[in-house]
């Protein structure tokens, strides 16, 4: 599941392209001017301090506006050079972003002439071993991936990545990060969906997994957990891996299913820094307490650092089940794991708010 949208991705990509290419000759004239886009600055949920609300708006000064004597409309063209997972409609125009008094149009797609494009975009997992990167004068190369470097080690190859002027990936160090959680209005609304009351949830650990050979070892871990046959917190497996529940239709809604459980498995298929996928966000949205296996810095992404049961800190199936038993028998301790859903926006984890801010306010630092 890839939650990032075509438009959301390319807004970030083309603004980075502007920052690196179109306006760099003006670097000495102004710094840190905000680029605005109407669709990215709407308030979320009416929460105090939410992205786009009054507390996070930045003011562009008169000096900022006059620092850019450009023509009324600037065009940026990004040529798509590889296959990708966004579908067949990966051609488009993103109009009416602004910097100062200048309106900017971004055109992207495979039909653009690569000889004339301002930048060329490559989906790194779709690049073959013999792919050649040709860089023309005043043209940028953009490398994008939402896949883990454990499965696509080219992402960790410094010599290869050095070919790209802009990295667009799940990594927070990339110029245009593409998180699996978009931090847009709809996804934030889903995230704060109220959980079912403690008494109405099944006291069990729900497990939905269809990739039984993941590099993270989650299948082996969960096979051991199921083998413990815990009588207080049994494991209900609904996926293809070690299924023990009667599944009539494999097209069930996962979020609705796990919404009815106290605990749910949210383990990544591979473990590398910053690689946090929809598995965690689906669990948080559903209001079950996630049993998580992933990168060591996962708490930087969470609305509350205590919102998960981190398997890494427990270290064994036996320790995990002991912790789930404790929470199942202590309503207050369990509900404390979900208390973040009822807090004001500004009371959430500062690192979560920083991720939100980065995702909604795009800047060009010249």
UniProtKB/TrEMBL annotation:
Domain Fucosyltransferase C-terminal span(s) in chain numbering: 199-342
Q: Per the record, GO CC terms?
A: Golgi cisterna membrane
Pfam families per the record? Glyco_transf_10 (PF00852)
Q: Which GO terms describe its molecular function?
A: alpha-(1->3)-fucosyltransferase activity
**Bilayer topology annotation:** Single-pass type II membrane protein
Protein's UniProt name: Fucosyltransferase
Please give the superkingdom of this protein's source.
Eukaryota
What species is given as this protein's source? Volvox carteri f. nagariensis
Annotated Gene3D superfamilies: Glycosyl transferase family 10, C-terminal domain (3.40.50.11660)
Biochemical pathway = Protein modification; protein glycosylation
Give me the segments passing through the membrane: 6-23
Q: Which family does it belong to?
A: Belongs to the glycosyltransferase 10 family.
**Lineage of the native species?**
Eukaryota, Viridiplantae, Chlorophyta, core chlorophytes, Chlorophyceae
Q: Which residues form the signal peptide?
A: none
Q: What is its main location?
A: Golgi
In which compartments does the protein localize? Golgi apparatus, Golgi stack membrane
| Keywords per UniProt | Glycosyltransferase, Golgi apparatus, Membrane, Transferase, Transmembrane, Transmembrane helix
Q: What is its EC number?
A: 2.4.1.-
Under which main EC class is this enzyme filed?
A: transferase
């Amino acid at each position: 599941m890839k939650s990032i949208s075509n438009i959301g991705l390319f807004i970030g990509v083309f603004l980075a392209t502007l920052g690196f290419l179109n306006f760099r000759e003006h670097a000495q004239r102004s710094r840190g001017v905000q680029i605005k886009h109407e669709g990215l600055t709407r308030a979320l949920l009416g929460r105090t301090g939410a992205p786009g609300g009054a507390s996070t708006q930045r003011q562009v000064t008169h000096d900022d506006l006059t620092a850019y004597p450009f023509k009324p409309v600037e065009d940026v063209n990004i040529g798509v050079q590889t296959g990708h997972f966004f579908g067949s409609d990966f051609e488009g125009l993103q109009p009416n972003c602004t910097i100062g008094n200048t309106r900017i149009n971004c055109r992207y797609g495979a039909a653009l002439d690569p000889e004339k494009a301002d930048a060329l975009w490559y989906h790194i997992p779709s690049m073959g071993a013999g792919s050649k990167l040709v860089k023309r004068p005043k043209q940028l190369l953009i490398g994008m991936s939402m896949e883990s470097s454990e499965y696509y080690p080219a992402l960790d190859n410094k010599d290869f990545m050095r070919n790209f002027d802009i990295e667009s990936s799940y990594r927070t160090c990339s110029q245009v990060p593409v998180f699996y959680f978009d931090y847009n209005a709809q996804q934030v609304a889903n995230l704060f969906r109220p959980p079912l009351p403690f008494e109405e949830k099944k006291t069990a650990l729900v497990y939905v997994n269809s990739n039984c050979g993941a590099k993270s070892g989650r299948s082996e871990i969960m096979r051991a957990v199921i083998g413990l046959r815990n009588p207080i917190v049994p494991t209900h497996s609904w996926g293809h891996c070690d299924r023990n529940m009667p599944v009539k239709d494999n097209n069930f809604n996962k979020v609705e299913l796990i919404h009815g459980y106290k605990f749910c498995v949210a383990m990544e298929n591979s473990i590398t820094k910053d690689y946090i996928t929809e598995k965690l966000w689906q669990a948080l949205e559903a209001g079950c307490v996630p049993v998580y296996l992933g990168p060591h810095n996962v708490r930087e992404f969470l609305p509350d650092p205590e919102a998960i049961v981190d398997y890494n800190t427990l270290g064994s199936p036996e320790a995990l089940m002991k912790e789930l038993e404790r929470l199942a028998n202590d309503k207050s301790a369990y509900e404390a794991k979900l208390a973040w859903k009822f807090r004001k926006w500004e009371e959430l984890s500062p690192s979560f708010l920083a991720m939100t801010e980065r995702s909604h306010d795009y800047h060009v630092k010249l």
